[in-house]
């Protein structure tokens, strides 16, 4: 199956003197998907986004947006961006801010007026559109920032911590907006600390560390795959446990309780059969899905937070 890629990077690197911020980043983000970009602090996520936006030049390697080199005016007009640490002109009203953002993208006035009204309503700020941004709360600024990233109807949206400062209602709103963008065939590149949010909405996720992609997972495969399994059983001696460890990862074995990690739930019947054939009395087998947070810790490690 062939895919149309909105983003492609080829051994993309960024160095600041002796510091390597991004080392050999290679990935492809498909058109119409929500792509999660996950890694610990200092993994190179923000630097990667800046290179893709044309805000900083790579030291080596290359990348394409919409199958074109980075930094072209045509590409920039098709991209929306909500940075994590935004600094908006606080003397502008919400309406003026969106109008200014839309004019930078050279949107026709009639289209801009329509888009502004639509997004002010969508992010719940219609009644505050004439208030200056200096009067907005953190959550309101996050909402108006999302609106400015989308007011020009981009085909690709970079969202860096888009739910920071939002309550559960606001986070649900952001997820709904991302899902709508996907339905329209648009691409969302998401960086978020909230792995539970990523797990709900993303199609695929990339785990990066020290500027390198360690692994890319499809969420649908993850949801059907690896799991932690709790087994209540009696008669598991050292020999049985040694044979079991060749079939899966034995995380703990204490008295009549086993904790296993399996790559696929389809292996459970084989494990159960093995235990029974070796005289183990099995009372219960309870699979527990591995969360994205657990997988993150397995892949990236515990030597740094998100």
From TrEMBL:
Residues in ABC transporter domain copies: 7-235
SMART domains associated with the record: AAA
Gene3D superfamilies: P-loop containing nucleotide triphosphate hydrolases
Family annotation (SUPFAM superfamilies): P-loop containing nucleoside triphosphate hydrolases
Any GO MF annotation of the entry: ATP hydrolysis activity
Family per similarity comment: Belongs to the ABC transporter superfamily.
Keyword set, alphabetical order: ATP-binding, Nucleotide-binding, Transport
PROSITE patterns for this protein: ABC_TRANSPORTER_1, ABC_TRANSPORTER_2
Entry protein name: ABC transporter domain-containing protein
Entry-linked CDD domains: ABC_DR_subfamily_A
Superkingdom: Bacteria
């Amino acid at each position: 199956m062939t895919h149309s890629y909105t983003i492609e990077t080829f051994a993309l690197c960024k160095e600041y003197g002796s510091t390597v911020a991004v080392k050999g980043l290679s990935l492809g983000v498909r058109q119409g998907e929500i792509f999660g970009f996950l890694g610990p602090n200092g993994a190179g996520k923000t630097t990667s986004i800046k290179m893709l936006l044309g805000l900083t030049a790579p030291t080596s390697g290359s990348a394409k947006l919409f199958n074109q080199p980075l930094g072209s005016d045509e590409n920039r007009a098709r991209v929306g961006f909500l940075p994590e640490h935004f600094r908006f002109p606080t003397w502008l009203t919400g309406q003026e801010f969106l109008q200014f953002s839309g004019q930078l993208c050279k949107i026709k006035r009639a289209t801009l007026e329509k888009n502004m009204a639509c997004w002010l309503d969508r992010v719940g700020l219609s009644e505050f559109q004439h208030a200056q941004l200096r009067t907005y709360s953190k959550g309101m600024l996050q909402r108006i920032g999302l609106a400015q990233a989308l007011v020009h109807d981009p085909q690709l949206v970079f969202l860096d911590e888009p739910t920071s400062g939002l309550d559960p209602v606001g986070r649900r709103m952001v997820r709904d907006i991302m899902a709508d963008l996907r339905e329209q065939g648009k691409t969302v590149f998401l960086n978020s600390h909230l792995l539970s949010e990523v797990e709900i909405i993303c199609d695929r996720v990339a785990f990066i560390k020290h500027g390198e992609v360690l692994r890319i997972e499809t969420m649908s495969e993850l949801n059907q795959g690896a799991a932690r399994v709790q087994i209540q059983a009696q008669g598991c001696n050292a020999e049985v446990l040694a044979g079991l460890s060749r079939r899966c990862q034995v995380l703990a074995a204490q008295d009549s309780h086993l904790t296993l990690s399996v790559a696929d739930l389809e292996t459970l019947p084989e494990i159960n059969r093995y235990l029974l054939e070796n005289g183990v009395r099995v009372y219960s087998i309870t699979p527990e899905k591995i969360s994205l947070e657990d997988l993150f810790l397995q892949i990236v490690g515990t030597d740094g937070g998100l």
